[in-house]
Every structure is written in C-alpha cells, then in structure tokens.
Write a structure and sequence with these properties.
The complex is a heterodimer of chains A (about 270) and B (about 325).
Chain A lengths: L4 H19 L6 H9 L7 E2 L4 E4 L3 E2 L5 E7 L9 E8 L6 E7 L7 E6 L5 E9 L4 E10 L11 H6 L4 E5 L9 E7 L22 E8 L2 E8 L8 E6 L5 E9 L4 E8 L4
Parallel strand pairs in A: 1-9, 3-9
Antiparallel strand pairs in A: 2-4, 4-7, 5-6, 5-8, 6-13, 7-14, 8-9, 10-11, 11-14, 12-13, 12-15, 15-16
Helix pairs in contact in A: 1-2
Chain B lengths: L2 H5 L25 E4 L2 E4 L17 E5 L4 E4 L5 H14 L4 E5 L5 H4 L2 H5 L8 E5 L2 H20 L14 E3 L2 E5 L4 E6 L9 E5 L4 E9 L10 H12 L5 E6 L11 H19 L4 H7 L6 H4 L6 H16 L3
Parallel strand pairs in B: 4-5, 5-6, 6-7, 11-12
Antiparallel strand pairs in B: 1-2, 2-3, 3-4, 8-9, 9-10, 10-11
Classes of the chains: A mainly beta (about 270), B alpha/beta (about 325).
Chain lengths: ~270, ~325
C-alpha cells in the first residue's frame, strides 16, 4: 500500500482520537491497532526480544525531553538489512513519533532520539527488514510531575535559533568500524495549539518533517519526523565510514523551510 | 541598571495604613501571616500536588492599600483560591482589584477562578507577564489532566486556567491607594514568564519561583538565564523576599544563596559532562546525582522528583552554548 505521509498521519491521528473518544482513555490498544492496520497492512509482527532493543526511561524526568534508543541486532548488509525503524508513542496525539529509513550503507541500525510524552504510555519500536519482516519491542513510560509539560521552555529562543545544526562525533574517528554521531537541529518543533476560548490563541504546528543524512554522496538515512520529537530534535546514530569524508544533512520543516549543512568527518574531527 | 527599582523603595516607612486585625484565627486552617505592614502571606506546604493538600503547595499572599488589595498567586486549585480569598477577607475589607500570577505553573495560578466567581461587575483584573497567556493556553488543559491524576477530579471542581488580561511587558506600577506596587517582567529564568511584585512601601519582593527555599528549584526556563537574573536581583537591597516555596518571608539576598549554589554546581557539572561527550540519558548519573544536598549544602525536599528534570533541562540548554 502506498500512502503519502500527510494523509497517513492525518488519518491516523483522527482515527486514534475517535477511537479514544469511544473507548475511553483507559483503553491501551487503539493507536497501535490502527497503525498496525494502516501502516503495516496488518502483517504479522514478530516479538523483537533479543533482536530489537528499546531503551526508554521507566519514569521520564522531563515530559518534553524523553530519551529513547533503538538498537537492532539484525544484519545491516546490502543483502539483508533493516530498512526502517518506527518509533510509536501510543498515547500521544500523533502516535508515530518518527520513521527512520535506513540504508545498508550505514552498516549499523542504532538510533537514539528525544521525544515528548503526553501521558503514561506504551512506546514501541518496530523494525522492518528489506524483505518485509516486522519485529516489535515495547516499553512503558511514565511522564511525571504536575509541572512537567511537553512544552517549549523558551518560545522566543526556540524561534530565534531555528535551523542551526550541530554534528557531534561521540567516538574517535575509526574507518571501517562503528562510529557514533549525534545530530542536533535547533527547531521549536512546535506541536500547534488549538484556539483557546479565552485568549483566542492559535498557533499552527511547525515541526521538522524530513531529515536526510548523506556521507559524501551516499544516502545513509532519511528521517520522517512529527510533533512528538522534542524541541531541537536530536538524532544519534551509528555508522561505518570506509574512510574520511563529508557528512551532509538536509532538513525540511512543514512550513517549507530548508536547512542544509556539511561537516568534514575524519581523524581530526 | 536597576536604579529605578531602588529609587522607589522606602524601607520601613511609617506610612499609616489602616487594617483590620491581622492574624488568621486559630480555627482557620488557612493561615495568613503579616510579614510586613499590610503584606500578608500564606505559606504553602512544601510538597507535590496531592488530594490531601488540594494543591496548597506554593506561597501566596496579598498587599493591602488604602483603596484596594492586590493578590499575588492563587494556589493550586479553585478550593485553595477560595480559602485564600476568605482569609484575605478576614484581614481587610478593601476590594480585591488585581490578581497577579508570577508565572504559569498551576500551583501558583490554578486558584484564579475563585477570585472571579460571584463577583460579577467587580471582578479583579488578572495580571501577568506578557508571555503568560500563551503559556497558559499551551499548558492549561495538560495541567488540568495531570493534576486530576494526582489529586482527583473532585478536588479540582471549578478549577481552570484563567489567563491575565493586564499584561506586563517590562514594568508596571499599580496604585493600591497610598501604596505603590511595582510589577516587573523578566527575561527567561525559572520560566519564560516570570514576574515579580515589589511592595515599595515595605521593600518586600514577591519573587514567585525565582526563589525556591527548602524545595529543590525546578528549571522550566533557562539555567543560565536564572543565574544571570539572580545576579541582578542580588544587587537590589530588598528588605525581605517572599519566596515561591519555603518560608513566608526571608532576608535578602541570603534567601537565594542555597539555590544559587545548586544551580551553579549543576551548570558546572553539565558543562563538564558535555565536554566529556556524555550523552543525555547518562547525564543524570554523571552529574551530581541525588541527593544534590552534596551540591549546595542544603537538604532539599522533593529532590528525587526534580533533580533529574533539571539535569535534562540544563543539558539541552547548555548543549547549545
């Protein structure tokens, strides 16, 4: 089934909201059931224990910045690789937080990011292999505290810095081996705000929609983001460079802004 | 730079102000203490939201002029707001003309509705930082849901976010009748909508959550911004402050010393962790893990609940330094 992302997420959001309204907030399953049916055509999903690891805090310190790591132990070779990792947060307004389309050129399939969590929720990592197998691992996350809201801490700074990027090498450069990099994109990743009856406030959503990462001219990864990714989206990933080169990142948000930046990657960086 | 603030201060002035007897009587559990002539403060419990405290977990108070009363913060539910309004009614017969919120957090603003109900035609004006309406709109319904989980729906009956209609961009002086109160909107520190209330007659500053005592400070704005603002506030000779949490009043600037030590230690440890390439989810174990009493020489309450959040907030701020 070929579905454009916008229609997909729009339909999922409305279906999920409708389901919650009927079933009540206690029902745990509707968001995933809908995603399973619409995104994965109801295909069989295997237990990811032992091959797909999901690290999430049992209790989130800050509902606006919840660190999540997904590690695939499945092969990442040209013949057999994980082509996508899905991060799903069942109880969020837009449950699909991100889809990480991975290339075999990465040589690894380990992704970490930071998300907003609206309420106590199941979080799911789903790995889809090139030949269509699906694996899923889940974790339960509690967002804590009455004042811990998945909201901006400084709305003005968030807008003033929009589009700035950092690429951090978290490991010493090692050709032919697993290197870890962290990409930070300054962006409010604003969830949008409904009209408030008293203040008449309405602020449209404004978030990072797509991130592509190239090493020299080879695509490593394409990320589809959504409002569940934290302010200043962060994407940490493993990759295996054959030699020194240039990392190029392109970012597009739903307002049509485009940001691009390149960094040399090698022994000195 | 802050000369204007200083110039307005007349410490310990003997301005004759007429008040009714002040101390809440013993049968009233909602105590209101007169911390300076005409300045009343209710000391909230140092605790998290719970059904047992109904959200009465932050300090709130009022300033009484010859003609009108200005309320500073309203507690964490309409019930607490009602109790505060009743306690104020017991110490003065002047009308409440302004209700000021020092910032968006529900323990300081969710009692607002109680001051508007049943006062048709004489409703006080709700006052806040120019950025407060947006923050309330963004967070109000989220807070209501979370607090319902913590306290139950019954406790929250009548509670809702009531945004300010009088906004302070920079500074504003209100005349309560022979008594001037100076409101000041600050750059991002504890939150991005912090507002202080200075009673010029007595030199008493309601800091809101720009000053935490006993309860571990919570960063919901900017760690560096908060430290920079403490520099500014410490340079002003307030006679006393009313912190957002902790005792009803405290001397200044010593009241902010423990908080400063904690925030500085957090900043320094986070900078080192970032330089050492410690990733976000490992930062908590790398940075002065609780109890942060070791950081600041203060046995902070609610440290377990809030230190981790501060590490996350500080880390994501400082990684963009």
């Amino acid at each position: 089934m070929k579905v454009t992302r916008k229609t997909l997420l729009a339909s999922l959001t409305s279906v999920a909201v409708a389901a919650v309204m009927v079933a009540g907030p206690a029902a745990a399953g509707p968001a995933w059931e809908n995603i399973h049916a619409i995104v994965f055509d109801g295909r069989e999903v295997q237990d990811g224990s032992g091959v797909l690891l999901l690290e999430a805090p049992a209790r989130a310190h800050d509902a606006a910045v919840v660190p999540i790591t997904i590690t695939s132990l499945l092969p990442q070779t040209p013949d057999d690789f994980v082509k996508a990792l899905y991060l799903v947060i069942d109880e969020n307004p837009a449950p699909i937080a991100g889809i990480f389309h991975l290339e075999p050129a990465l040589g690894a399939a380990k992704i970490a990011t930071r998300v907003r969590v609206d309420r106590y929720t199941d979080v799911r990592a789903i790995a889809e292999t090139a030949d269509g197998r699906l694996y899923m691992t889940t974790a339960f996350v509690k967002a804590s505290g009455g004042c811990s809201a998945p909201a901006l801490k400084d709305a003005e700074v968030a807008m003033s810095r929009i589009g700035k990027m950092q690429l951090k090498a978290l490991t010493d450069f090692a050709p032919g081996e697993t290197n870890t990099a962290e990409l930070l994109i300054s962006h409010p990743n604003y969830t949008g705000l409904q009209i408030d009856q008293l203040t008449r406030y309405w602020i449209p959503p404004d978030y990072v929609e797509e991130v592509t990462v190239h090493f020299d001219d080879t695509l490593l990864m394409r990320v589809q983001g959504d409002i569940s990714l934290s302010e200043d989206p962060a994407i940490r990933f493993d990759y295996e460079p054959a030699a020194a080169g240039t990392m190029r990142v392109e970012v597009t948000d739903i307002k049509g802004r485009h940001f691009e930046q390149s960094w040399p990657v090698g022994p000195s960086s | 730079m802050r000369r204007r603030d200083l110039a307005g201060l007349v410490f310990g002035s003997a301005t004759a102000l007429a008040f009714r007897p002040t101390v809440a009587n013993a049968s009233t559990p909602f105590a209101l203490a007169e911390v300076a002539p005409g300045v009343f403060v209710h000391e909230g419990e140092v605790a998290d939201f719970a059904a047992g405290n109904q959200g009465d977990i932050a300090n709130a108070g009022c300033i009484v002029g010859d003609e009108a009363v200005l309320v500073v913060d309203t507690g964490g539910s309409a019930r607490v707001g009602e109790a505060l309004a009743a306690a104020i009614g017991a110490v003065t017969d002047r009308p409440i003309r302004w209700v000021v919120n020092t910032h968006v957090h529900p323990d300081h603003s969710f009692g607002n509705a109680a001051f508007l109900e049943g006062r048709a035609g004489a409703e006080p004006i709700v006052v806040g930082h120019a950025r407060l309406p947006r923050a309330m709109a963004e967070r109000g319904s989220h807070y209501l849901e979370r607090l319902a989980e913590l306290m139950g729906h019954d406790v929250l009956a009548g509670t809702r976010a009531v945004p300010p209609t009088l906004l302070v961009e920079d500074e504003r002086v209100l005349d309560l009748g022979n008594r001037l109160v100076r409101l000041r909107a600050w750059p991002t520190a504890h939150t991005d909508q912090d507002l202080t209330v200075l009673d010029e007659s007595t030199g008493t500053l309601f800091t809101g959550d720009l000053v935490f005592m006993r309860r571990l400070p919570v960063i919901d704005g900017s760690l560096l911004g908060w430290l920079a603002l403490l520099d500014v506030l410490e340079g002003i000779a307030y006679a006393r402050v009313v912190p957002g949490h902790g005792p009803a009043m405290a001397p200044w600037p010593t009241a902010g010393a423990a908080q400063r030590r904690y925030l500085e230690a957090l900043r320094d440890d986070l900078r080192k962790a970032l330089a050492d390439k410690v990733v976000l989810e490992r930062a908590i174990s790398a940075v002065a893990s609780p109890p942060p009493a070791s950081l600041s020489g203060e046995a902070w309450l609610l440290a377990e609940e809030n230190h981790g959040r501060n590490v996350m907030a500080g880390y994501t701020e400082l990684e963009w330094e």
